[in-house]
Amino acid sequence: MTKIILKKGREESLLRYHPWVFSGAIAQVSGQPSEGDIVGVFAHDGSFLAYGHYQVGSIAVRVLSFSGEDVLGPDFWTNTIRRALNVRTAAGLYPGEKTNCFRLVHGEGDGLPGLIIDWYDGVCVMQAHSVGMFRAKNAICSALKEVFGDDLKAVYDKSSGTAPFKAGLDLVDGYLFKAEGFKDDEQVVLENGNKFLVNWTEGQKTGFFLDQRENRALVGKYSRGRNVLNMFCYTGGFSVYALNNGAVHVDSVDSSKKAMDMVARNMCLNGFDPSAHGESCADAMEFLRDVPEDKYDLIIVDPPAFAKHRGALSNALRAYQRLNAAAISKVAPGGLVFTFSCSQVVDKEAFALAVFSAAAQTGRSVRILDRLNQPADHAVNIYHPEGEYLKGLLLYVE
Ligand code: SAH
After folding, report:
1. Are 272 and 236 in contact (CB under 8 A)?
2. Strands 277-281 and 249-254: what pairing?
3. pLDDT one-digit tens code per residue, 105-157
4. What pLDDT, in 10s, does the model give residues 73-88?
5. Percent of the chain having pLDDT more than 90?
6. I need a labelling partner for 217 at 20 to 30 A (CA). Which of 43, 97, 292, 378 fits?
7. Position 101 confidence tier, pLDDT thresholds 50, 70, 90
8. If DSSP codes are grouped into helix, strand and coil, which group holds residue 203?
9. Where is 139: in which H helix or E strand?
């Protein structure tokens, strides 16, 4: 196995269990590792630090194990996936009656940097974000079969858009496993008793935004008797909760035609009166511009990540400010705004400041009723604070 020796003093972050080795920390590489190989990482004095996946780039090693245990051992994948499942069981998500979809593996949060696996009532949809995880996909699939047994219906690999492109990697999405009789690319799942159709082949990311489960429940709690606008609705998650919890009317807006088609199907699936729901395939900002003041007394603002890297930060903060100022200025007196950011590089203080500036711009009286986060199955490894990405505020606008 290739040995990576770090520069003197550069072992500090690994001793604090941070799971990344930056290329600048490396003094010496013994051998010629291929991308995705498992390598051993050692301090300058030769002491063992960790095993991890090697990759060319600024993060050179993603750590899989800090102990001397051999990560190439036969039980590594089953053990780590079982430990991830234990967390979901502790969080009341598995086995689940009212909720049967959740994130099973959240990368560094579950000690598996570069790997996402979402569970849709027996269908695992995996996305590898590193070469090492992509190359391990068959071992991961075998481990899923062992951990879930007959509960596993299928494993779908959807890494073509996430794994770094490398010559020689066969980046074609497809099933790694299908139980006998399994044939569809979509199925109905339950989230807090609400029904959703999830299509992992056609949908964005793995098919559904599982990270908004708790925040959708909170929207449900505040929806009774309200007129709701769900901006950036994707397949209508917040809209379904609002209508199931007594909203008078909900309008859903997204610029993706495919997403809006799924919204329509989700409305039928939940049996709502068509007159209670409006659907617009439109740019959210443009839609908001034409909204009459006071029409909505609950507005949800859940845009895609405006900043994907640090360089985009200041533009992103300005965009959050503009969007939130528009929403705050339009909501009816006594109305609520649920506003979110899923940009990892925008931390919660920076986001709150952008929303504060937006509120000040409108001159309205605004109170913070709640601070919103990602749920337990999007667990944050305490040694890897970068895993925290979703943040939101619930505002009361007088
Ligand atoms: N709230 C959703 C997730 C939102 S993801 C849920 O609960 O599932 C962000 C969504 O914003 C995507 O569906 C994307 O299609 C949409 N989007 C991106 N740019 C947009 C724009 N300018 N106007 C409206 N929708 C947009």
Report:
1. no
2. parallel
3. 999 999 999 999 999 999 999 999 999 999 999 999 999 999 999 999 999 99
4. 879 999 999 999 999 9
5. 94
6. 292
7. very high
8. coil
9. helix 137-148
- The domain limits of the chain are 3-65, 74-188, 209-397
Read off the pLDDT of residues 217-234 as tens digits, 9 standing for 90 and up: 999 999 999 999 999 999
Q: Which atom of ligand 1 lies closest to the CA of 209?
A: 8
C-alpha 204 to ligand 1 mean position (Å): 10
Which ligand 1 atom is nearest residue 340's CA? 1
**DSSP-derived 3-state class of residue 331:** coil
How many Å apart are CA 306 and CA 315, to the nearest integer?
A: 8
- The CATH T-level fold of domain 74-188 is Transcription Regulator spoIIAA (3.30.750)
Residues 159-172 pLDDT 10s = 999 998 776 777 89
* CA-proximal residue: ligand 1, atom 21 (nearest): 283
Q: What is the pTM of this model?
A: 0.97
How many other β-carbons are positioned within 10 Å of the β-carbon of residue 277? 24
- Among 202, 218, 255, residue to substitute to test ligand 1 (most atoms within 8 Å of Cβ): 255
Could you tell me the fold of the domain covering 3-65? 2.30.130
Rg of the chain over Cα atoms, rounded to whole angstroms, equals: 23
Q: Contact 120/72 with Cβ under 8 angstroms?
A: no
CATH superfamily of this structure's domain 209-397: Vaccinia Virus protein VP39 (3.40.50.150)
